[in-house]
Design a protein that fits this description.
- The protein has about 550 residues and is an alpha/beta fold.
- It has two domains: about 70 residues, no CATH class; about 450 residues, no CATH class.
- The protein has 18 helices and 18 strands.
- The protein has an eight-stranded mixed β-sheet with strand order 10-9-18-16-17-15-13-14, sandwiched between helices.
- Helix 7 crosses helix 9.
Length: about 550
């Protein structure tokens, strides 16, 4: 009997040896199409990294991301988990908690002539209490020092399910059901302490994505969740770490219930958020308008898709985004607040938001542009007549990358989206200023970066080449008007639609400026010297309330 087992043992051992040997020398192209994420790079061995243990940890992560036949293994795992997704749950809302929001709310920087996300070096630098810190403003490279492990509330009533820290709690008729292990990476929990992946060569080491402690509070359906009273980690538009400014504001609505969470409903992933921290944002814009009374100031606030497609549990009450514009308007004297929310709501039956990404689509951005034109009393360009439409497909956005190990991902994988983009037909020239000043310009051929392969998982950053520090667009428009757009990633999809209306467009993303270790910049001389007519602030609702955004805007405009 033993002799009959020898061939099996020898064959198995030989196959494992070959598998391990090839895995040691195999290397991917840095991106997994099946997971829609960047894979870890091979670490460089140094004496310090070896003795500190960093090299061993990084090499283990590299091997897990690059072993032989990995794509086939991931395909098989996705097919296996897909069998657990039942149509009976297609109308339910699952809550995925303890997700690091900064991993996917920002589009990566692009630079002309580089392999951008896959190989280019990001330059944005953020630093601030309770906010993202790292060399690059890239998903997966988050460094939040000094913050503890998040203890998220992990119960929900009303027929929903909560997925948190490797456990899944089901509730039936408002009663807590039995606790069982969810299929998250074969038992691997998705929580606020998981490490992000390396993005590309030239990037700093991956920081551990810490999350602050969640406040104890009443969940959307009325159930009190568990948690540790204390600081709430920033969730997009959430408060700074101390939260004092927000708590003093009338628009502060109590505890942030689903801090760092996603809502999964059928084949749509959404970020729940509320109108937090917007009084300070409005006051900041008012101060800028007072300093430059000769300039027209506009504010466009982009809601998240949860405002239109989530149930009332996550779109009303503490998650009511509809009042954001009113809060800003009440505090931003001298600024015209664009009514984008109502315009988007009127078109909610159309594809105005991605199902697998946090951003609005180009169509959604166009409706926000139409709302701006109404506020500015200018004629909007025709979507069909003034732009050439292009499409990239299949498209799976940044939020899919957060749930690809869950059974619900099978629905998105089998029903991917398409990314539509619109290129102005009018003649124009676009220049990127990679270093954050008006020196060292880079010219690009199109306002849309159609080299989608180089964009990796973050193909939304094709719009206006992502979150560049400064851009300039000169068009053949005969209006003679000039505009400065100060924006986050939501504003990137809006910029192309402005080309027919303005002869000169400047675009600035504040995250790369005036933080420790990055360039300082005063945007007022640019507005004055270039005789800018209009300034448009276009931020997502969570970006508008973020401490890091408000702090940098203050430095750019008010110093």
């Amino acid at each position: 009997m033993k002799r009959q087992q020898y061939p099996v043992i020898i064959t198995f051992t030989a196959l494992m040896a070959i598998f391990c040997l090839f895995s040691l020398f195999s290397d991917s192209d840095g991106f997994s199409a099946f997971e829609n994420r960047e894979l870890a790079d091979k670490p460089v061995l140094t004496a310090s990294s070896y003795f500190s243990g960093e090299f061993e940890e990084d090499y283990e992560e590299y091997l897990l991301d690059n072993f032989m036949l990995r794509d086939l293994s991931v395909m098989g795992y996705q097919a296996y988990t897909g069998m657990f997704f039942l149509d009976a749950f297609s109308q339910s809302e699952d809550v995925l908690m303890s997700v690091n929001v900064d991993d996917f709310v920002s589009a990566p920087e692009q630079a002309a002539g580089e392999e951008s996300v896959a190989g280019g070096q990001g330059l944005a630098n953020e630093q601030g209490t309770g906010d993202k810190q790292g060399e690059a403003n890239m998903p997966g490279e988050v460094n939040i020092p000094g913050q503890g492990e998040k203890q998220a509330a992990n119960e929900q009533q009303g027929g929903g399910r909560t997925i948190s820290n490797g456990e899944q709690r089901s509730t039936v008729d408002g009663q807590n059901g039995a606790t069982g292990q969810s299929a998250i990476g074969g038992g691997q929990s998705i929580d606020g302490t998981s490490e992000g992946g390396h993005v590309g060569p030239g990037h700093a080491g991956v920081g551990q994505s810490g999350a602050g402690q969640a406040e104890t509070g009443q969940l959307a359906s009325g159930q009190t969740g568990t948690g540790t009273s204390g600081e709430s980690s920033t969730f997009g538009s959430n408060q700074s770490t101390d939260g004092a400014d927000d708590k003093a504001d009338d628009d502060y609505q109590g505890d942030r219930k689903l801090t760092n969470s996603l809502i999964i409903s059928a084949d749509r992933i959404m970020m729940p958020t509320g109108a937090y921290g917007l009084k300070n944002f409005g006051r900041l814009l008012a101060e800028a308008a007072e300093l430059m009374p000769e300039v027209n100031f506009y504010s466009i606030t982009g809601p998240t898709s949860a405002a239109f497609y989530a149930s009332e549990n996550y779109s009303t009450g503490n998650y009511n985004q509809s009042k954001a514009e009113a809060i800003i308007s009440a505090n931003a004297g001298g600024v015209k607040v664009v009514k984008a929310y109502d315009k988007l709501m009127a078109h909610r039956g159309e594809d105005i938001y991605f199902r697998s990404d946090v951003h609005w689509t180009a169509l959604g951005a166009y409706y926000a542009y139409e709302a701006f034109c109404e506020a500015a009393q200018i004629q909007p360009a025709s979507l069909s007549g003034d732009f050439a439409m292009g499409t990239y497909e299949p498209f799976l956005g940044g939020l899919y990358s957060q749930i690809y190990k869950l059974p619900q991902a099978a629905r998105l994988k089998s029903n991917p989206e398409q990314l539509d983009y619109y290129i102005p037909k009018i003649d124009y020239k676009m220049t990127l200023y990679k270093m954050g000043n008006l020196e060292a310009p880079y010219s690009v051929d199109s306002i849309i970066n159609t080299n989608f392969k180089s964009l990796g998982a973050y193909k939304y950053s094709c719009f206006a080449w992502g979150d560049q520090r400064i851009q300039k667009i000169e068009s053949g428009s005969t209006t003679g008007r000039k505009v400065l757009v100060i924006k986050d990633s939501y504003g990137s999809a809006l910029v192309p639609f402005l080309v027919p209306n303005y002869s000169t467009i400047y675009v600035a993303d504040p995250k790369g400026f005036n933080q420790e270790g990055s360039l300082t910049f005063d945007i007022k001389p640019l507005i004055k010297d270039e005789e800018i007519d209009d300034v448009i602030f276009c931020f997502s609702i969570y970006g508008s309330g973020r401490h890091i955004i408000q702090s940098t805007l203050s430095s750019l405009l008010l110093k």
